[in-house]
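Exercise 3.2. Students should predict the tertiary structure of the chain below and write it as structure tokens, then compare their answer with the key that follows.

Predict this chain's 3D structure.
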Amino acid sequence: MTKPTQELTLTLSIDDVNLIFEGLGNLPFNRVYTLIGRLQEQAAPQLRAEAPAESAAAPLAMVASR
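Answer key:
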């Protein structure tokens, strides 16, 4: 029997999230790609809603994996 996954809601600055992406970029891609996708999926709508007029708004950094 599998234990249900408990979810958390966190509030972080863009700099904090980019730091998390940087750290994830240092791990093997096959371990973190799903997590990176989930983070980007949740952050993208918030960034679009926050700065619709700013076409130069920087998206979350995607750190290249090894």
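Discussion points: Residues 14-50 form one domain. The longest helix spans residues 29-50.
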